[in-house]
Specification:
single chain; 205 residues; mainly beta; Porin; eight-stranded antiparallel barrel; 73% strand
Length: 205
């Protein structure tokens, strides 16, 4: 993760250096919206099939744009919907059903942002950053009239990148959509990945 944080620091330094070279004032902004995250857990031999996870979160951001082309932003998210999957397999000739619930407890990240103005009211943008994810699994296994439940919580650092676009209806209010790919750094599954799509309201200050 030292390399990832170093990359994020380099992006921030680039943004700061470019800002000093521009005469335009700093533009602050905030967003609030909904994010849908999805991932596929590859089968490790336990269930005999891959597991698809989808969970939703409310996402908020605060950012600063230095001139037209560069900026930085901080992001937090809190889970509001759970992924619910039911899988049936056979263990020692006994049918076993597992109910799996997944939820994002929280997420925090910082990004460097590059903007490409395409009109006075519209921008395309790309982001790269690092952060930390907290999530929760609830697993209930049922077989032969018996059941066993287990709750697991975990945290992981991540490296993220993506992009999208935004459009302002007037000088202050707009809408923003984007895609982000997250690469998780965990002890159990090095290099796990998930994707997210967000739609947000944007407000300039």
């Amino acid at each position: 993760m030292k390399l990832l944080f170093g990359a994020a620091a380099a992006v921030a330094l680039l943004a700061g250096g470019s800002a000093m070279a521009q005469t335009a004032p700093v533009q602050y902004y905030g967003t609030i919206g909904y994010t849908q995250a999805s991932a596929t857990l590859e089968d490790d031999g336990t269930f005999g099939q891959d597991i698809d996870l989808d969970a939703g979160a409310i996402t908020g951001r605060l950012g600063a744009r230095f001139g037209q082309y560069v900026g930085v932003e901080g992001e937090v998210a809190f889970g509001v919907t759970e992924s619910e999957e039911s899988i049936t397999t056979t263990f020692q000739r006994v049918p076993v059903t597992a109910d799996i619930n997944y939820k994002i407890n929280g997420k925090a990240a910082v990004y460097g942002v590059g903007f490409l103005p395409v009109s006075p009211n519209a921008d395309l943008f790309g982001r790269i950053g690092v952060g930390r994810l907290s999530s929760e699994f609830d697993v209930t296994a049922r077989a032969g009239g018996f059941s066993q439940s287990e709750q697991m919580e975990g945290e992981a650092n991540f490296f993220a990148f993506g992009g999208g676009g935004q459009y302002f209806f007037d000088g202050l209010n707009g809408v923003r959509g984007e895609y982000t790919r997250f690469n998780l750094d965990t002890d159990e599954d090095e290099g796990a990945e998930f994707d997210s799509f967000s739609i947000s309201y944007v407000r300039k200050f």
